[in-house]
Amino acid sequence: MSAYILDVAMLPGGWARAVRVSVDAAGWITGVEPDAAPHPDDQHLRGIVIPGMANVHSHAFQRAMAGRAERGGTGDFWRWRDVMYALAARLGPDALRAVAAHLYAEMLEAGYTAVAEFHYLHAAVDDDGPRCMSAALVDAAADAGIGLTLLPVLYQRAGFDGGPLAPAQQGFALDTARYLALLDALAAKHNAQMTTGVAFHSLRAVDAAALNEVVAAIDDDTPVHIHVAEQRREVDDCQQHLGARPVQWLLDNQPVDPRWCLVHATHTDPGELEGIVSRGASVGLCPSTEANLGDGFFALEHFEALGGRWAIGSDSQVCIDPTEELRWLEYGARLQAQRRCIVSSAQAPHAGARLYRAALAGADGLLGRRVGAIAPGYRADLVALDDRHPLHAGLDGDARLDCHVFASPPRTVRDVICGGRWRVRDGRHEHIDALAHAARSVQGAFDA
Ligand SMILES: [Zn+2]
User: Fold this and answer.
1) CATH placement of domain 2-51+372-433
2) Does the pLDDT value for residue 447 go beyond 70?
3) 20 CA to middle of ligand 1, Å?
4) Is 315 a catalytic residue?
5) What is the CATH number of domain 56-363?
6) Collapsing DSSP states into helix, strand and coil, what is residue 4?
7) Which of 57, 227, 267, 315 is catalytic?
8) pLDDT in tens, 86-137
């Protein structure tokens, strides 16, 4: 049992001062008391403290190619994918662990405290391949101290026509029985900082029979993630082969509900958006990646007007900063609408604060653990923002959070507690130098 005293904290009911947060040995919040008198053993978190952000969509290995596919010739999404396949083919478990551990430490420094890892590098050359690659990610998350929801991905065919996987895709493949066996093996490793869910790469990579078999095999509270409608070509192919747009097909054929994360959902029509809202599913938006890949822009303003749930992800890892993802979302919508402050309303006038709270709430249920609030029963994931920069002078509450989201100076995240453990102090992760050294050496091998 430990306790923290927070100068100013964002609680579910609003901002509060002198908040005493009690945490049990496993890292769960057991009590939250505003206007508290500190005890001698309490640890002090200075400045303004907000819940850590959930990153609902990550492919850790792609950090090794971030910024390295920006030349002509990697022009469209499908050419970028070829570059990504070439990297995937060269990654073994040790290299994956090194790249992911450094990435996860960087996520913590940026204020992400939980990550859903959409993992398809099974490299299934033998029976131990999938387990080794999953174990590499579990170990990487433990190295960095971030909360992990590992989502092994089912990936079985090259496209809607049922064609066999290309050689570059073979390492992603698992038959359904081996996939379910992998889930069972990982379930035995669950702890307070690690759990699992299921993921389907996309409707183009998994047929209805396999989808149904896996969905029937999981518990009612297991998160389900799927890439959907990221590219127009995928929408066209789905209509041609399944007779419906991909989001509509999912709504019509699967038990889509609040544990489902529809990743991207870029090319959706108004009826599909209404369907997502009515089922309570969340959309996993990755605006920096969607921009980098030229995917398109999600209909945020319309979805917000419907009361839709959404969360954010770093996806291809070109950007490791939740505030930048949130800015991209709002700015994309502003550029489309030629107006300011798209997500704000009379009830929630502060756009930055509204974006931050919406992303926290939209992730609830997608990670298989309670994250995203400073409240009993949630993970003790606390992010303390530096309040010494002149930009922050005189600001507090939602106005201060607006400034964090829209005008973050460097190193604005000062301290990070994740699962009740202190991981970042004064902007630096406790192991960042060693993890960076290990990641640099494997990166050099890729580039050779
Ligand atoms: Zn993705």
Assistant:
1) 2.30.40.10
2) no
3) 38
4) yes
5) 3.20.20.140
6) strand
7) 315
8) 888 888 999 999 999 999 999 999 999 999 999 999 985 566 788 999 999 9
